[in-house]
Amino acid sequence: AADKIRLIPQDFFAELCEQIIQHLNHKIPGVNTAELCQRIQTSGVEINIGDLAKIANILSFLFSTAARNNLSTEELVTTLGSAGSTLPKHAVQVIRHVWNEQGKAIAVSEDARTMATVGQFVDMKWKLGVAMSSDTCRSLKYPYVTVTLTVADPSGQITDKSFEMTIPQFKNFFRQFKDMASVLETV
């Protein structure tokens, strides 16, 4: 991971660290590694999304463990150095700065930790389509609904999950959402 961290420019690494801290503070639902990876690649750095996601998971673990153990900035930096870490100097400087500025605000209550293991719903998009024909059937005229859910998994990685439904399935899906809304109004 240290080799991949060396590739990431300091400003992008700082942005990644800050987004992770914000996620751990429940200010944002997760870290959009796909968008950040694309921006890093556009700047001319060769890194893939899988490597960036691993780095984000490592940093998330680092910050949450430091918060759980109530480490000061100097204790965190000393621990990083004594663990035989081969982190680049710019990465240690960024970690020190971000932890010094925002680390103490991380709330690590049991409830927050339990909730974080489930993941979080971020957004939902849908579109109506009609399959006109296929190579095996000339005239389908089959309507369907495509739903894309944006979800932040427990580590904070934001992913999209897509699925298709027939119109009757979508009507049932919609009815269940209406039932949830009516129950929530009574709370």
TrEMBL record:
Any single GO molecular-function term of the entry would be: NF-kappaB binding
Mark the transmembrane ranges: none
InterPro entries listed in its UniProt record? COMM (IPR017920), COMMD4/6/7/8 (IPR047155)
Every COMM domain range? 120-187
Q: Which family does it belong to?
A: Belongs to the COMM domain-containing protein 6 family.
Q: What does this protein do?
A: Scaffold protein in the commander complex that is essential for endosomal recycling of transmembrane cargos; the commander complex is composed of the CCC subcomplex and the retriever subcomplex. May modulate activity of cullin-RING E3 ubiquitin ligase (CRL) complexes. Down-regulates activation of NF-kappa-B. Inhibits TNF-induced NFKB1 activation.
Name by which UniProt lists this protein: COMM domain-containing protein 6
